[in-house]
Design brief:
By secondary structure, the chain is mostly helical. The chain is 58% helix and 0% strand. It is elongated.
Length: 64
């Protein structure tokens, strides 16, 4: 769907201020380098639905 690399989870304690700064700065730079979100508008919903249906069809063949 185009969100690869745009999600990040990291466990940071409230005592780890330096780690928080490092993680947020690094992730912010990564997002900036990826450019605008593919979900920010102007996307073709029919293409997304077709992709979802194709995946569902594959899952049905494999599973059943």
């Amino acid at each position: 769907m185009g969100l690869e690399g745009r999600l990040h989870l990291d466990w940071i304690s409230s005592a780890e201020a330096q780690k928080f700064v490092q993680v947020v700065t690094s992730f912010t730079n990564k997002i900036k380098s990826l450019g605008p979100s593919p979900l920010s508008g102007g996307f073709d919903m029919s293409a997304i639905m077709s992709s979802c249906e194709a995946v569902q069809g594959t899952a049905n063949v494999v599973g059943g």
